[in-house]
Amino acid sequence: MVLKTLCLIFLLAVSNNSMAKTYTLKFATLMPTGTAWSKILDNWVTDVEKKSGGRIKFKMYSGGVMGDEPDVIRKIRMGQLQGGLFTGYGIGRIYSPARVLEMPFLFKNVNESNYIRKQIMPEIKTGFRKNGFELLGWPEIGFIHFFSTKPITSLDDIRKLHIWLWQGDPLGEAFFKAANIDPIPLSIMDVYTQLSARHGSINTVYTSTFGAIALQWYSKLKYASRIPLTNAIGGIVVSNRFFNRLPADLQQLLKSTGKKVGDDLRLDARKQNIKSTGILEKNGIKFMFGWEDVSINEILAIRDKAAAYLEQTGYIPAKLFTKVRKLLAAYRKQHPNKPDDKLDHALITTEPSAKLTDEKSTVIQPAITKTAVKDKRD
């Protein structure tokens, strides 16, 4: 009798375990496979699947196969996908006030942006949640620079270039409008194709140094600005629809591991961008157009004009701008800058790096192009 009881208990345990509900997390990103970032994401996937006992299963869609970021957000809202890794552009489609953290020329260094991020993060998470998303992690894309086929020596030079604008990006539109620059709007899926075309519509883009390599845009360009426009943000999100269905322990698992992978990506981005600068220089990209080539007052005037426009449209509320400015003023009072400090301490530095053709190079993968965009139906 005891033996039968033990067997019954064993069979019930096995049955319950086999019937444990599994949750499939379809996750999309523009980042190509084989990059430093994709490897960090792969480690996260392995970690979550292991710690969940197989109850969470990922299906990863990298390299833009699910489309541009607005396409991915639409598919998440429709339930075709459950999560993604986004740049500030995508974040703006979810909760636009968060993009105050990548307002051009607002922060002097990463210490300032770190401080402000921590102060307003509870507000950002609440904003995401109200708009149907759970914010798991907060990486960085890194310092954004102009890259061009033409030399860049002044703002007047920039105004004459055929500059790409990420189509539908209100922050980019505001900045270019304030700087009196007439950009050419395109989906990011079209950028590589247009740079490659003999008579393409653009000859200048903006991205991080790591991004220039990861997307292979660098291979079509010759020059880059030393002045960083901003420290671009990123976000790891899942839909509330998916997150709220999870048991409490799996919700906590995604939140704790999501925060860690966001932190890991942010720190790695800072290292990769410095390393990528050296790689780009060794492969013929000439960095030019530094702070000595501009009027700081003119740069600040452009920033403030763009901010005023974003306030007027409600994309970034005036109340939030005021809050951030007050926080920054208090922080700077406690942490005064050196007399020679500019708007950003990160004037490009380099370190010895291998050629892009070397085995240890950081990322040589097919560029994101429109032809690569297709849904993978399961």
**Domains counted in the coordinates: how many?**
1
**Percent of residues in β-strands:** 5-15%
- Number of β-strand runs: 12
Give the integer mean of the pLDDT values.
Answer: 87
Give the overall form.
globular
Give the fraction of residues assigned to helices.
40-55%
Brief sketch in words of this structure:
This protein has helices at 2-18, 36-51, 69-78, 88-95, 110-130, 155-160, 170-178, 191-196, 209-214, 240-243, 248-282, 296-313, 318-334, and strands spanning 23-29, 56-61, 83-87, 133-137, 140-143, 145-148, 164-166, 184-186, 204-207, 223-225, 231-239, 286-288.
Set out the fold topology:
Blueprint: H1 2-18, E1 23-29, H2 36-51, E2 56-61, H3 69-78, E3 83-87, H4 88-95, H5 110-130, E4 133-137, E5 140-143, E6 145-148, H6 155-160, E7 164-166, H7 170-178, E8 184-186, H8 191-196, E9 204-207, H9 209-214, E10 223-225, E11 231-239, H10 240-243, H11 248-282, E12 286-288, H12 296-313, H13 318-334
Parallel strand pairs: 1-2, 1-3, 7-8, 10-12
Antiparallel strand pairs: 3-11, 4-11, 5-11, 6-9, 6-10
Helix pairs in contact: 2-11, 5-13, 7-12
